[in-house]
Specification:
It is built from 13 helices and no strands. By secondary structure, it is an all-alpha fold. Helix 1 runs antiparallel to helix 2 and helix 1 crosses helix 4.
């Protein structure tokens, strides 16, 4: 019983991190889901909703609650930290991602690793970095705020569920709807939440089975591509216009170390839990 409570708490904390990935510019929620060992199971569940329905629902309840906590309640302190301590906050997340990369690398090679998979990884890294770099410079504007816009916003957020490394918050920031979305989350505005849910649900229905099929047909290639996309997303969010020789530079280093410890520790707990479930 104590172990089940502990596992519930761990999944809840993972959900918090994943939830912040939806609202933290530059951070990919699906990349965090991959790193915390949740992505593949979530895709399989969405693709085959009737398979082990009750078991999967019970598994994802703490993750979903954690995501809501991360999106709604942490939007306040995150807004403050990003405004007043941007670099240390980003380095905390970079550290958490870096801490889980060793487990992701092992997961990618669990069914073997050939030279072609390494090529796929570097190709995905270059493609992902190029796409995000160009998006950051070409996509800039202000969409009208209306029902259709929120459906499109939900679809973009839904797309980020399936594409590790794709930061929906960054894309929405450039489209000029990110701030309005955060305000809608804070105030629990149904005029924002309902159309976004519709857009996200449509996106899930379109892509879930396709992505699940790719995992079934090309597991190793998919994971190496994901690894490359995750690394690309990390490179994109590194704060460059910052004086690292200042006192806050030391704070960044400390935040990075704390993030590594937190990410590595959670990935180890996840690995231990999986190994115990196999015995």
């Amino acid at each position: 019983m104590e172990k089940s409570y502990f596992d519930w708490i761990i999944r809840f904390v993972k959900g918090i991190f994943i939830g912040t990935g939806f609202i933290l510019p530059g951070v990919s929620a699906s990349a965090l889901a991959v790193l915390f060992g949740i992505y593949e199971r979530a895709i399989s569940f969405m693709a085959h909703i009737n398979r082990d329905f009750v078991k999967n629902v019970l598994f994802f309840i703490p993750i979903g609650l954690g995501m809501l906590f991360g999106i709604v309640l942490l939007s306040y302190p995150l807004s403050y930290l990003l405004e007043h301590h941007f670099a240390p906050t980003i380095w905390l997340f970079i550290g958490a991602i870096a801490g889980t990369l060793p487990l992701l690398w092992r997961q990618a090679g669990i069914k073997g690793r050939e030279s072609k998979h390494v090529v796929i990884m570097f190709a995905a890294l270059i493609f992902g970095f190029s796409l995000m770099y160009l998006s950051a410079r070409l996509v800039d504007g202000q969409l009208p705020i209306n029902f259709i816009t929120w459906i499109l916003t939900g679809a973009i957020v839904g797309l980020s569920v399936f594409v590790p490394g794709f930061s929906s918050s960054t894309f929405l920031l450039f489209l000029g709807v990110f701030d309005a979305m955060i305000i809608g989350f804070k105030s629990f505005d149904l005029g924002v939440l309902i159309p976004m849910a519709i857009g996200g649900a449509v996106c899930v229905l379109i892509f879930a089975k396709a992505v699940n099929k790719l995992f079934e047909k090309a597991y190793t290639g998919m994971y190496h591509a994901i690894f490359g996309l995750v690394v690309a997303s990390v490179l994109m969010i590194i704060p460059l216009n910052f004086n690292y020789l200042s006192f806050e530079g030391l704070v960044c280093a400390a935040a990075f170390i704390v993030g590594i410890v937190l990410g590595f520790g959670m990935s180890r707990l996840d690995k231990k839990d999986k190994s115990e479930n196999k015995t």
